[in-house]
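Project outcomes to date are best conveyed with an example. Our students and postdoctoral researchers have been running inverse folding experiments weekly, and each run begins with a structure described purely in tokens. The record below, which covers 148 residues, was selected by the lab manager from last quarter's runs and is presented without edits.
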């Protein structure tokens, strides 16, 4: 398998606005990315529970949008545990963000993530590329549910 960086970035929202509007900004940004790049697969990090319950709920709502947009476009969405991503990229399940960013530079030398979040997203993409065959087989073997 050979990976190369195509693009990376972050979708931002206005922290001063209501949550509903921020979720709409995320939705619209992801729709734009999906329409522009037309991916065949997507990957997202599984939720981790943090000490701040409100922050965890907001993260869950944002993850819902991040899963909904590609699913609506017919794109398969895989999920990976944060420790698996770190172990895949750095070799240790408790790696620091700086270590991930350095390894993304090694694994994808043409990629230049502008932030730690962009490097994390690339790390999830590389993890998916590494594990995708087992994910695709699992999805293919799953029973089909008819829409009503």
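After processing, the design step wrote out the following sequence:
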């Amino acid at each position: 398998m050979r990976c190369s960086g195509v693009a990376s970035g972050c979708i931002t929202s206005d922290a001063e606005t209501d949550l509903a509007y921020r979720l709409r900004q995320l939705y619209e940004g992801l729709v734009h990315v999906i329409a522009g790049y037309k991916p065949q697969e997507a990957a997202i990090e599984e939720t981790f529970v943090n000490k701040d319950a409100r922050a965890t709920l907001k993260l869950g709502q944002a993850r819902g949008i991040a899963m909904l947009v590609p699913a609506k476009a017919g794109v398969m969405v895989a999920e990976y545990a944060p420790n698996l991503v770190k172990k895949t990229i750095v070799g240790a399940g408790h790696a620091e963000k700086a270590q991930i960013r350095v390894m993304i530079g090694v694994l994808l030398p043409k990629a230049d993530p502008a932030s730690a979040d962009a490097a994390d997203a690339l790390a999830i993409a590389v993890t998916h590329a590494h594990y995708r065959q087992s994910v695709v087989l699992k999805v293919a073997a799953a029973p089909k549910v008819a829409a009503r």
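The first helix runs from residue 19 to 37. The CA atoms of residues 76 and 136 lie 9 Å apart. The training component of this project remains on track.
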